[in-house]
Write a structure and sequence with these properties.
The structure is a single chain. The protein is mainly α. It has a domain at 38-146 and 194-264. It contains 11 helices and 5 strands. It has a 3-stranded mixed β-sheet with strand order 3-5-4, sandwiched between helices. Strand 4 and strand 5 (115-119) form a beta hairpin. Helix 3 (62-84) crosses helix 4 and helix 3 (62-84) packs across helix 8. The longest helix is centred in the first third of the chain and has 23 residues, at 62-84. The chain is globular, with a radius of gyration of 18 Å. It binds zinc ion.
């Protein structure tokens, strides 16, 4: 019964009841919150260190320099963008890092705390700085919109009866790590939880504004996603594409946002 009831509560949206605590995210949407920032940042820092120790960053190549160059501009842009919304507290404990690692997977992620990793396998899909800014803007937006925390909260509700992350971390550290890594897509072997359409739309929107704030023409996001759409028809769909559905709806959404995005754009 419990197994059936809890997913049902998630579907109905437990926010609005007094059973579980909820928070508004940066977009003003009410989200389930069983996850506190301090625990998430601590987990993020541990998992990032573990990942980097086994996947040493590439340095000194044109692609590695591209990741640094675009990352540094986006870092400044996120702060400026959130300042326009009075929300810089969302990233106040971030210590940004941008790394390219040698890995054939088509993937890139940004952990809470500002740890960005780009896999070498995705680089051929991103020949220009604008392409990379499109992807990283989107990933950074997932981080400051706390979409991973939202997914972890849903997982905690369904699998652990609504236990708080901090409680689970002391009783079941391995399970806690698995939930975290799944929510942030750190390793494909764990089975990546796809973000919801709502979360994807939010990340597309905020990512576009961050990209524009950084001085990258947001119009360039359209041909990028069109290329992703063309690529996603292949027989083996890469991680990045399978967790980031590329379709006409997304491309139309981005086109609809363009007039607003251009208000952030300063070449
Ligand atoms: Zn996404």
């Amino acid at each position: 019964m419990k197994k059936l009831l809890l997913p049902l509560l998630v579907l109905l949206g437990v926010c609005g009841t007094t059973i579980y605590s909820c928070k508004k995210n940066a977009n003003g949407r009410n989200t389930l919150s069983l996850v506190d920032d301090a625990t998430v940042l601590s987990l993020s820092s541990q998992e990032y260190s573990t990942f980097i120790s086994t996947n040493p960053p590439i340095t000194g190549t044109p692609e590695a320099e591209m990741v640094q160059r675009v990352g540094i501009k986006l870092k400044a842009a996120v702060t400026n963008y959130l300042a326009t919304k009075g929300q810089t507290d969302l990233i106040k404990d971030y210590q940004w890092e941008f790394n390219l690692v040698s890995n054939p997977e088509v993937n890139a992620w940004c952990l809470p705390g500002g740890k960005i990793v780009v896999y070498s396998g995705i680089m051929p899909l991103m020949p220009t700085d604008e392409d990379l800014a499109t992807v990283l803007g989107h990933e950074i937006a997932h981080a400051f919109l706390k979409h991973g925390s939202e997914r972890m909260s849903q997982q905690l509700l369904v699998d652990y009866g609504g236990q708080a992350l901090s409680v689970l971390m002391s009783s079941k550290p391995e399970e806690t790590r698995t939930i975290f890594n799944s929510a942030y897509g750190v390793s494909s072997t764990l089975g990546v939880l796809a973000f919801s359409r709502k979360q994807e739309n939010e990340a597309d929107e905020a990512g576009l504004y961050v990209m524009a704030t950084a001085g990258y023409d947001p119009n360039m996001a359209v041909p990028f996603w069109e290329r992703m759409k063309a690529n996603s028809g292949g027989s083996s769909v890469p991680v990045f594409l399978s967790t980031h559905p590329s379709d006409d709806e997304r491309i139309q959404h981005i086109k609809d946002l363009m007039p607003t995005a251009m208000t952030y754009y300063q070449p």
